[in-house]
Amino acid sequence: MIFSQLGKGLIVSVEIFILTLVFSMPLGLLVSFGRMSKNIVIRTIMKVYISIMRGTPLMLQLIVVYFAPYYVLGMKISSAYRFIAVIIGFAVNYAAYFAEIYRGGIESMPKGQYEAAQVLGYGKTQTFWKIILPQVIKRILPAVTNEIITLVKDTSLAFVIAVAEMFTIAKQIAAAQASIFPLMIAGAYYFIFNLVVALVMEYAEKKCNYYR
Q1: What is 2-208's CATH number, 1.20.1740.10, 1.10.238.10, 1.10.3720.10, 3.40.50.1970?
Q2: Residues of the chain predicted below pLDDT 70
Q3: In sequence order, which ranges of the chain are alpha helices (DSSP H)?
Q4: Most buried residue among 16, 83, 118, 205 by CB atoms closer than 10 A?
Q5: Is there a contact between 98 and 25 (Cβ–Cβ < 8 Å)?
Q6: What is the pLDDT of residues 58-116, one digit of tens each?
């Protein structure tokens, strides 16, 4: 009974995890472009966005995303919006972290890479997608892995707007049964989840070590 209930919660946690990555990673790349833009207005907006996302708690951001439509726009909030708000909150938060990781990787590339591409007749777009980005991905994988592992644990914060993911269900069962056992099972699930993620990312890093 406990395992089946926690299993349903685990599915919700996995959904939050996957959808957050699907939206935050490409969004983070766009934000990193804005952060490195020569346009001071765009660059400043992106710097402020990143500063706010990294400087305030994710829990607070989830609350703002969920309640802002009602308090700011006067819109009625449906129960279905809870999960959507979680994905929006997680995506915009993690996009800021990924943006800085991307920026660090892109700016670490030697200028000679761009010059060599120009000599070979590559345009700026071709240079980035075919030469720079593959090398950037190789460099940033360890930092990205850390963020992804953190995301696995952060999915538990969805409880703040009453989205019943695994940890929330574990707490409810533990309170009903006056037992810590459900929380220990949830902890084991999180550990296995993170172990799988770590193994997948380790495999990806090995595949990118094409010079060894």
Answers
A1: 1.10.3720.10
A2: 1, 209-212
A3: 2-35, 40-55, 58-71, 81-107, 111-119, 124-126, 133-154, 166-177, 181-208
A4: 16
A5: yes
A6: 999 999 999 988 888 777 877 788 899 999 999 999 999 999 999 998 888 877 777 77
